[in-house]
Every structure is written in C-alpha cells, then in structure tokens.
C-alpha cells in the first residue's frame, strides 16, 4: 500500500512555503482564527472526559494541547509529517503528550484504542485514494465506542468571492462539498453526523464538521 505520508494534494509553492515554518504557521493560525476554532471544537464537539485517549491527526505544532483541561489527565498523541512542526511541538509541550513525525499508517502499534481521533483540516491536503486509506487506518486505531471528528474547509452554495479566492489558494488542493466528505466516511462508520459552520474563523471560511461513530 502507498504510504499515507507520501501521497497528498498539498502545495507549498510561492508564499505558502513560509507556512512550513512552525513560527510563521502558528502566527497564521492566530490571525486567521484557526487557533480560536480549535478551542471551540474541543468545547462544543469533542468534550473529552477524564483520562480519555486522544489522537490529534495532523497535529501541526501541537497547539491543540493548549486548549485541553490539564486536570483531565488526558492521554494525548499527535502525529504530523512535517518534521519541523513536530520538533517545535516536542520542545513546547514536552511532558504533556507524545508526538510522532509520521503518517497514521506508520504510528506504533501500541498507539491504538483511542477514545477520540481528531482530524482538523487534513483531508483536503490528500488525494481521494489516500483519504480512504487514512480512514481505514483511523478506524483501526479507534476504540469501539470512540469518536472520529473531521473538520474540513467546504464548498457551499452562495460563498463570497473572497471566500472562494481564499479556499482556492489554500495549501490543500482537494477541498470538497459536504456530500463528498460524507461519502468518504459513511461506508466505514455506523453513525455519521454532519454540519456546516460558517463562523469558525476570523476570515470568510466555511467548515464541514463530521462526527463519526462505530456504534449509535
């Protein structure tokens, strides 16, 4: 099988190459509202319980950890294929979680049985074949009662010209419609709940949140 780490629909041409830097990436996340959005995802959709095991797929620089309640004693694991992002995460959040520079298909076997797997803005960086492989890998890592949460930029009707421009110029080149995202996961999960969020960021940016479960 082709490695998930090697196949993508990701572009770092032109000015976007600067976002491969952890510091610039973090700054961009703050000014666009992406960091605020992570906090909202945890509060409204994840709602972790004490000692829950959480896998942050495509964790970037690990800033998701800032928004979890330390008193919950969560078992956090993050992975990303950007070595610089992971290096930054290990320095910033040492002792609060485990970080791996790899794709989910290369994650150690012992890292499984997760209560929550979170994938924020990951799938639009992948081609369709790789996305389906990733979903298969995620399903194997999730425990029976676990939740797989996806949050992706989405094409909708009546988007403004500014929003269309921003999405077309994103590093991820495979943004889909809500129905296309649902089709990716509905054959693998018993329960699929989807919603469109139009006020997630400071910039015009519609997000499709999909909550997947193995059981009802």
Walk me through this protein's architecture.
- The protein has 216 residues and is an alpha/beta fold.
- The chain has one domain: Rossmann fold.
- The chain is 30% helix and 24% strand.
- It has 6 helices and 8 strands.
- Strands 1, 2, 3, 4, 5, 6, 7 and 8 form an 8-stranded mixed sheet that branches.
- Helix 5 (161-168) links the parallel strand 5 and strand 6 (176-177).
- The protein is globular.
- Residues 1-6 have low confidence and may be disordered.
From the N-terminal CA to the C-terminal CA, the straight-line distance is 31 Å
Q: How many distinct folded domains?
A: 1
**Would you state the CATH class?**
Alpha Beta
Biggest sheet: strands, sense, closure? 8 strands, mixed
CATH-level-4 superfamily name: Vaccinia Virus protein VP39
CATH topology: Rossmann fold
Structural class: alpha/beta
Strand content: 15-25%
Q: What distinguishing features does this structure have?
A:
alpha/beta, 8-stranded mixed beta sheet
Strand-helix topology:
Blueprint: H1 22-32, H2 34-46, E1 53-57, E2 75-80, H3 83-92, E3 98-101, E4 114-120, H4 128-141, E5 142-155, H5 161-168, E6 176-177, H6 178-185, E7 191-197, E8 207-213
Parallel strand pairs: 1-2, 1-4, 2-3, 4-5, 5-6
Antiparallel strand pairs: 5-8, 7-8
Report a brief summary of the structure.
With 216 residues, this protein is α/β, with parallel strands linked by helices. The chain has helices spanning 22-32, 34-46, 83-92, 128-141, 161-168, 178-185; strands spanning 53-57, 75-80, 98-101, 114-120, 142-155, 176-177, 191-197, 207-213.
